[in-house]
Design a protein that fits this description.
313 residues, alpha/beta, 2-enoyl-CoA Hydratase, Chain A, domain 1, six-stranded mixed sheet, three-stranded parallel sheet, 12 strands
Length: 313
């Protein structure tokens, strides 16, 4: 133990040498523990200890890699705990049930002290100039539907207007099977810089926020037509900008693309479907590591992990 609200195990130590009964007890405990669990030293683990690897929330190579994980848990223990519990819970759920679970957890944390403290630290900014064009451009070419995130001055920050525009575009695809291909892109220097921070905390209450996410959910529509969807991403792919593409059948990333899940540092969990989509691509443990550490994942690493399918210059 580290004295932190997280269980840390060195698998290269004597862990797992106590016999089969002890291993069974350890497996059961790892499933039930409410706090995050992390392990390192798997490469030097005994065969018995190696059997525990899949049951931890996060597995890293060594103690140095644990530093950002422990810092995140220390900074936002409520969000960190909620994240790993949600990932465990959703592992065997279908997409619909997983999205409901994610929204409920996200809504709970919106009413919590960690998000409140983060929100209080944000500096009020002057209102942005009104965009004259739609937040999402929808264009159909024969049997191909093109959706373009269109707030380039804000690096396509994912606003309520953008969410609703994407939902309307995806409803066309879901409702019209003659559309053979849906391509989603972002205008400007980035695919999406994540949720529009100017709108954080503007909904009246967490319960209303949950209902809105349940009824205007781009993630669910993406899942319904995923086999026809291709995302072409570049630049910042943060928060929703990483979570939504992960639902698609194919994700093509430019070499300058990077992926990041910063929500835990705000006292939240990914809320655009990422706790459902990203584990299906890179696994539960890597998803937890990405979300807890808040690290930037470059395009090459994202490709090696399976978060994207192709790289382009």
């Amino acid at each position: 133990m580290t004295g932190e609200p997280v269980l840390v195990v060195d698998l290269a130590s004597d862990a797992g040498r106590e016999g089969a009964a002890a291993l069974d007890t350890a497996r059961a405990a790892l499933v039930r523990l409410p706090c995050p669990t992390a392990a390192f030293g798997a490469a030097l683990a005994s065969p018995a200890a190696a059997e525990l690897v899949d049951h931890f929330d996060v597995v890293v190579a060594d103690e140095a890699d644990l530093a950002p994980i422990l810092a995140a848990v220390r900074r936002a223990p409520l969000a960190a705990t909620a994240l790993v519990q949600l990932l465990r819970h959703s592992a065997d759920l279908d997409v619909h049930a997983g999205l409901i679970a994610e929204s409920l957890v996200y809504s709970t944390l919106q009413g919590g002290p960690e998000f409140g403290a983060w929100l209080a630290e944000q500096t009020a900014r002057p209102p942005d100039k009104e965009d004259l064009e739609p937040a999402v451009l929808v264009r159909r070419r024969a049997d191909r539907l093109e959706l373009t995130l269109n707030r380039p001055r804000k690096r396509n920050a994912f606003s309520a207007e953008m969410r609703d525009g994407l939902v309307e575009g995806l409803r066309i695809a879901v409702g019209d099977p003659s559309i053979a291909e849906v391509v989603v892109r972002g205008a400007g220097p980035s695919f999406s810089s994540g949720g529009d921070l100017d709108e954080f905390g503007t909904l009246p209450d967490p319960a209303t926020a949950h209902v809105i996410r349940s009824t205007r959910n781009a993630a669910r529509l993406l899942a319904d037509c995923a086999d026809r969807v291709r995302f072409e991403v570049h630049g910042a792919c943060v928060g929703a900008g990483a979570e939504l593409p992960a639902f698609a059948h194919r994700v093509v990333a430019a070499e300058d693309a990077f992926f990041q899940l910063p929500e835990v540092s705000m006292g939240l969990v990914p809320g655009a479907g990422g706790t459902v989509s990203i584990p299906r691509r890179i696994g539960r443990q890597r998803t937890a590591q990405l979300a807890l550490s808040g690290r930037r994942l470059d395009a090459e690493t994202a490709w090696r992990w399976g978060l994207v399918d192709d790289l382009r210059a």
